[in-house]
Amino acid sequence: MDFKDTPEEAKFRAEIREWLRKNAPKGKRPGGAWTGSLIGEDSLKFHKDWQKKLYEGGWAAVAWPKEYGGRGASLMEQVIFYEEMARACAPSVVNVIGIALVGPVLIGHGTEEQKQRFLKPILSGDMIWSQGFSEPNAGSDLASLSTRAVLEGDHFVVNGQKVWTSFGTIADWILLLVRTDPSAPKHRGISCLLVDLHSPGVTIRPLVQMTGDAEFSEVFFDNVRVPQQNLVGALNDGWSIAIATLMHERGGVAVAIQVQIEQVLSSLFDLARRTGKNGRSAMEDPRIRQELARCYAEVQIARWNGYRSLTKIVKDGMPGPEGSFGKVFWTELNQRMQELALNLSGVFGLVPSGDPLTVDSGRWVYGYLRSRGNTIEGGTSEIQRNIVAERVLGLPKG
Amino acid sequence: MNFDLSDEQKMLQESARSCLAKEFPVTTTRKAAESLTGYPEELWKKMADLGWLGLALPESYGGLGLGFVDLAVVLEEMGRELTPGPFFSTVVLAGLTLADAGSAEQKKLWLPRIASGGAKGTFAWVERSGEWDGGALVTAARRAGGKYVLNGTKYFVTYAHVADFILCLARTGKALTVFLVDAKAPGVKVEPMAIMDSSRRVSKVEFRNVAVGPRDVVGKPGAGAPIAEGVLSRACVAMAAEMAGGAQRVLEMSIEYAKARVQFGKPIGSYQAIKHKCSNMILEVESARSAAYYSAWANQEGSPDVVEVSSIAKAYASEAYRKVTGEAIQLHGGIGFTWEHPLHLYFRRAKFSELMFGDPAFHRERMLRAVEKSAA
Ligand SMILES: Cc1cc2nc3c(=O)[nH]c(=O)nc-3n(C[C@H](O)[C@H](O)[C@H](O)COP(=O)(O)OP(=O)(O)OC[C@H]3O[C@@H](n4cnc5c(N)ncnc54)[C@H](O)[C@@H]3O)c2cc1C
Questions:
Q1: Residues of B in contact with A312 (CB under 8 A)
Q2: Could you tell me if the CB of A390 is within 6 A of ligand 1?
Q3: Which residue among the candidates A249, A262, A291, A298 is catalytic per the annotation?
Q4: CA–CA gap between residue B173 and residue A136 (Å, rounded)
Q5: Mutate to test the interface with A, among B274, B290, B363 (most CBs of A within 10 A)
Q6: With a 6 A CB cut-off, is A139 part of the ligand 1 pocket?
Q7: pLDDT bucket at B151, cuts 50 / 70 / 90
Q8: Are A151 and A139 in contact (CB under 8 A)?
Q9: Which residues, in sequence order, are CB contacts of B118 under 8 Å at separation 6+?
């Protein structure tokens, strides 16, 4: 047991720290930038510029192998990368789905041609990706999806609808799960396609979320022709790719998430220091101190759980039980932190962004509302708890 | 970064588990826990033979010179079986305190005897106010010539009824000082107390005009506060490790029962209400374990965040333990509510561990002050 950096880790840390010192954006950020929201021209451009800079410095996707423009960083180095990004208050990358999900899927299952064509623009942020999994009648039970793709000559013809597609309005491409064999058992007739959202027959309708922003969309496919070479992996073997993607979503992304919740915690403490409560600073109110301390403790514990599961992955190639409930842990903790922030501000906590009376540019109003999505997206908390009970604890299926 | 036990530590874990589960399982030690001393004498002898008593004491004083993480491994296993006896009081509260702050003479006299099983010690802290804050203490040592005269009453002194010496935290003027008092010294009166958890023995200890010399001061006169901070941090971590072990054992019993017990034609573990309970339990158990071991490491390395992380471990693990044992009783139905079933022993121990050495609210406040201090 040892939590100090090895000499190599220390070297890596010094390198990224120095780079961030020179390159991380300083000063005021456009509205919405504090949440990583990409809504609004300004915010999108700000994040795209930042991604370009990361790309040029070779930092856009540290986890990818060197030959594809990454750094071949070990898991530990990825943790260090995100820790240093947080320390420098650097913005997140714009092309999250491209870098965290699509890239690794292509590196693992894509053809050489697909890798050559897509990986570089994913890194540079020139090609923004989205994830087309959920459908109106296929949410938690993803394998029941019904968007159809029929092979006609050297093209698939796609018909159907996806929903809740994050970044749908700004994305150029979509990683799409489609049914290619309706007669096979439901997990065995699914394939995975790379689809250009600018193709004829694609209609994207923004859906306004409870935050008031339209961060996700409905995407309709009406006889959309997709070249056969855009199939990822084998025909009808899309489910294994879906699973791999979800593993990246719940695993790899977790490292980056830790940094986000640490940033929320530190902003929450800042807010408490600036806020008055019952005639004194909120930092002197015993009840608020208890709540802040509880959040502080749990953020640290989330980090230690993460360290344990990383150690386990490095040693055995698989996380231990402590890796299985990371998403439930951080999403529910984040909801409590956001709620505490609103409560700290009292009635003024209700004033949204854009109003001069708002607190911290409205980030807490947004965060409070947005955090309700965290326990739904990427697999609901109920589904996560089922998975822990059945796969980790071995309880019988219902 | 490496957050795992070493191969040697895993071996220690395995041997401790098989020894305690085979020779001293909770089902048999619970009878001994109700005896006069509160533990079987063979258990103490076994601990000495296995080297556990000197595990974390310096080699120069007859110990094995291992670290707090190794100690946490053994404590976690003891937590699994609710192992009774004065291990925690003798090793964690007394032994490590002397090793940390005692004079060469005190170490030479007591540490080798602790390591060999020949002596037992404990630490007297809390008073009738029930407050763990040093400022609340009224037991005082008055200077008289070259000596001190100690007066006051301490409560919840763990295993004082079998201790050879007692470290007593007392007021010397405005400051605090820790004194090493012979348990048989004139004026020391030990009276066992009744508490809800019989797997842990505590006593009321009265000091009436007890004479102590300058050689009985631990560290320097007036240096009691930082010594007590160290005692508290180590107690937090040790209890967190025990609690993680206890909670893990209770989770295992629950999973086993959920798979075996059939109602409405199906194992109860196939019902989602039970599944989600179990998933919440493992989340809390594993998180408590992460906190226990991280803080054990921090204590071992003398890391600057020791106070902060020890209090996190204590606060989190004790709430987790209480919830997990409560849910386990619910999950077992009627059988879980019987005297016969060991679950209530864990439920009782959880509450004891939650309230001893400061409740979770006390530790959250202690943690936050440490965080504020390091940020300033
Ligand atoms: C902010 C946000 C962004 C998203 N982005 C994307 C995206 O980019 N791409 C994409 O493909 N999808 C995306 N999604 C969709 C998301 O993956 C689904 O919403 C999610 O999987 C749940 O599906 P559903 O909405 O159909 O709910 P349902 O599956 O209908 O669930 C409704 C309720 O029933 C519960 N439930 C369902 N099955 C069970 C069960 N077996 N046991 C216990 N409870 C159960 C659920 O937990 C939930 O509480 C996004 C969602 C949100 C909120």
A1: 4
A2: no
A3: A249
A4: 74
A5: B290
A6: yes
A7: very high
A8: no
A9: none
According to the model, what pLDDT value does residue B51 have?
97
Is the shortest distance between the CB of A377 and ligand 1 below 6 Å? yes
- Does the interface predicted TM-score (ipTM) exceed 0.90? yes
Assign A359 a pLDDT band (cuts: 50, 70, 90).
Answer: very high
Assess whether A152 carries a catalytic annotation: no
User: pLDDT tens digits for A308-355?
Assistant: 988 888 888 777 777 778 999 999 999 999 999 999 999 999 999 889
Q: Is B44 helix (H, G, I), strand (E, B) or coil?
A: helix
What's the CA dihedral at A262, A374, A160, A99 to 10 degrees?
10
A196 within ligand 1 shell (Cβ under 6 A): no
Tell me the pLDDT band of A31, cut-offs 50, 70 and 90.
low
Q: What are the angstrom distances between the C-alpha of B259 and each of A96, B332, B342?
A: 41, 11, 19
Q: Scanning every residue of chain B, which has its alpha carbon at the shortest distance from the alpha carbon of A74?
A: B1
- How far is residue B49's CA from residue A265's CA, in Å, rounded to a whole number? 48
Interchain proximity B367–A296, CB inside 8 Å: yes
Neighboring chain B residues of A396 at a CB cutoff of 8 Å: 259, 266-267, 269-270
Lowest mean pLDDT among A23-37, A167-181, B65-79, B246-260: A23-37
Q: Please indicate whether residue A131, judged by its CB atom, sits closer than 6 Å to ligand 1.
A: yes
Please give the Cα distance from A12 to A10 (Å, whole number): 5
Q: How far apart are CA B44 and CA B84, in angstroms?
A: 10
Residue nearest atom 41 of ligand 1, based on CA coordinates: A383
Give the DSSP per-residue string, B57-70: S-GGGTS----HHH
∠ Cα B225 B230 B231 (to 5°): 95
Cβ contact (<8 Å) for A2 and B297? yes
Chain A residues with CB-CB distance to B258 below 8 A? 395
How far does the centroid of ligand 1 lie from the alpha carbon of residue B327, in Å? 28
Answer whether B202's CB lies under 8 Å from B158's CB. Answer: yes
- B338 Cα: distance to centroid of ligand 1 (angstroms): 42
Count of alpha carbons within 13 Å of A326, Cβ hemisphere only? Answer: 29
Domains in chain A (CATH in brackets) are 7-124 (1.10.540.10), 129-236 (2.40.110.10), 241-392 (1.20.140.10)
Tally of CB atoms within 10 A around A69: 17
Q: Residue of the nearest CA to atom 23 in ligand 1?
A: A139
State how far the Cα of A322 lies from the Cα of A309, in Å rounded to an integer: 6
- Nearest by CB to residue A1, choosing from B289, B293, B371, is B293
Question: What are the pLDDT digits (tens) for A96-113?
Answer: 899 989 999 999 999 999
Nearest-neighbour CA in chain A from B168: distance (Å): 30
Percentage of chain B surpassing pLDDT 90?
Answer: 95
What is the rounded distance in angstroms from the CA atom of residue A195 to the CA atom of residue B369? 54
To test the contact with chain B by mutation, choose from A258, A395, A397 the residue with the greatest count of B C-beta atoms within 10 A, namely A395
Cα–Cα distance measured from residue A153 to residue A151, given in angstroms and rounded to the nearest whole number: 6
Predicted pLDDT of residue A253: 64
Per-residue pLDDT tens digits for B42-92: 999 999 999 999 999 999 999 999 999 999 999 999 999 999 999 999 999
How big, in percent rounded to 5, are the helix, strand and coil portions of chain A? 55, 15, 30
CB pairs under 8 A between A and B: 145
Q: If you take atom 11 of ligand 1, which residue's CA is the nearest one?
A: A133
Q: Give me the pLDDT at residue B16, please.
A: 98
% of chain A residues with pLDDT over 70: 96
CB A321 within 8 A of CB A305: no
Least confident residue range of A25-34, A201-210, A216-225: A25-34
A33 — pLDDT class (breaks 50, 70, 90): very low
In the predicted model, what is the mean pLDDT of chain B?
97
